[in-house]
Design a protein that fits this description.
The structure is a homodimer of 169-residue chains.
Chain A lengths: L1 H10 L8 H26 L6 H12 L3 E2 H8 L3 H13 L3 E5 L7 E5 L1 H25 L1 H14 L2 H12 L2
Antiparallel strand pairs in A: 1-3, 2-3
Helix pairs in contact in A: 2-6, 3-6
Chain A binds a DNA duplex (30 and 30 nucleotides) through helix 5.
DNA sequence: CTTGGAATGTCAACAAGACTGACATAAATT
DNA sequence: AATTTATGTCAGTCTTGTTGACATTCCAAG
């Protein structure tokens, strides 16, 4: 806290955006915005026996079909046991298929079925619609800044995962 | 999905930032960045018998001392039962004080004790440090864009709460 | 080849933190 | 006096995270 104010004061107005008050605003903006970010998919999923964890699994399987359980749990940042419960229900319900790896039979490769793709698309559409409205209101320069700050906020390994996904498409 | 591409194509390069792929990147950026955003306070809290819910309560009591339980649960977007469990432990442990309202004796006004302020500051410092590093890396224009997009992403009532907090200081 | 360790995934049990519903109390409002 | 509002509490459930124990498969060192 003292350091931030010191830094800001040292350089005057030029670093006004680094004051504690500005940082606090940013923290609260993240908190409230993330609620909006998850609100639409959450609404769709309530009533089905699924939750946010299922949405995340569907999302990342969709964007890297054939990925392994291990890959997925690194991306999602949860334990394999936690992921497994989610995957089991998705597989039982015919939304995800699990195939034993051909070269390494310990691995399970995950893909979405037709039904899985349909649900993923429904969730994704809702989330993208909110994102698109926000982007449109804010304009392209704001969007560029938005991504720059988010990327800088990630842990190093998460940034690596993010960039790998981004560039892999 | 088709609509977004349609929109982008209709106007050409000018709306490139509204393609599905761009939106998808934004979604993943939010996901990974939020993990970073909460990582430091989570690390501090693990081992204490507190969690993210306690952090949020401390944060918003700190930034609006004397706020009521009802205010707080609207801001936090949880039920009173859920908030009450958290507040009870914080009060028992002497981090939060609850005072009966002088004008309306049904209300309980919440404030942080010395110890509560100390913990809030520790958590806040960690979170602000990450925020400050991200802001510094990204620069002031990016930060402005970041806030613009986040604000546009909130639900209307959350944006109202955010702006009220912001302007109330 | 065999054996032991590493990697991968599954099952079971538990904890945190959200939820709902029902109910109690006290104070304010009509 | 009756109703509404603000708060607190108890009990039970659900999602989603955790650890621990275990089975299977692969690979490498003896």
């Amino acid at each position: 806290m003292t350091e931030a104010q010191g830094t800001a004061h040292r350089s005057g107005e030029a670093l006004l955006y680094l004051t504690d008050e500005q940082l606090r605003q940013g923290i609260e903006a993240m908190f409230f915005a993330y609620r909006g970010f998850t609100a639409d998919p959450d609404r769709i999923l309530e009533g089905m026996s699924y939750g946010r964890a299922h949405h995340r699994a569907l999302h990342f399987i969709q964007c890297a079909p054939g990925t392994t359980v291990n890959n997925l749990l690194i991306i999602l940042g949860v334990t394999k046991q936690s992921l497994n419960r989610v995957l089991r229900t998705l597989i039982e319900d015919g939304l995800v298929e699990s195939h034993v790896g051909r070269s390494d039979k310990r691995e399970r490769h995950l893909t979405l079925t037709e039904a899985g793709q349909a649900l993923e698309r429904e969730l994704s559409d809702a989330q993208r619609m909110r994102m698109r409205d926000a982007y449109r209101k804010a304009g392209p320069e704001a969007v560029a800044g938005f991504k720059t700050v988010l990327e800088a906020m990630m842990d190093d390994d998460m940034r690596a995962a993010y960039l790998a996904l981004r560039d892999g498409r």
